[in-house]
Amino acid sequence: MSASDLDPVIHPTHRLRICAMLIAGNSVELGVVRDHLELSASALSKQVSALVDAGYVKQERDRADSRRVWLSLTRRGASAYRRHVSALREIVAEAERASAETS
């Protein structure tokens, strides 16, 4: 894993945080994500749309209340998120090793 393994769709901070919330839960209501990230509805919509367009996130309307939207990671999204996080961890580990070598 290296910086080249970083996913440009997931990398922006809000998208990374959205994926982190979704990987932890099976399905999360859009309003919960919005409140947790403290984003406006339009800003969240833009970030979610990028993830949906990439095939990483699935949106489903609540059958009982169509105003409620649930988000979940697709298999492709979960895999991309895990690779991205692994690449980030490797970058941090390399920096720590380099720092330890120069100390």
Q: Give, in spatial order, the strands making up the sheet with the most strands.
A: 1-3-2
Question: Uncertain runs with pLDDT below 50, 5 residues or more?
Answer: none
Instruction: Report mean pLDDT, rounded to a whole number.
Output: 92
Distance between the termini: 25 Å
Radius of gyration: 16 Å
The total count of helices amounts to: 4
Largest sheet: 3 strands, antiparallel
**Per the principal axes of the C-alpha atoms, what is the gross shape?**
elongated
User: What is the string of SSEs from the N terminus onward?
Assistant: HEHHEEH
Helix content: 55-70%
- Number of E-type strands: 3
Strand content: 5-15%
Class per helix and strand makeup: mainly alpha
Notes on the protein architecture:
This protein is mainly alpha-helical. Helix content is 59%, strand content 12%. Strands 1-3-2 form a 3-stranded antiparallel beta sheet. The two termini are 25 Å apart.
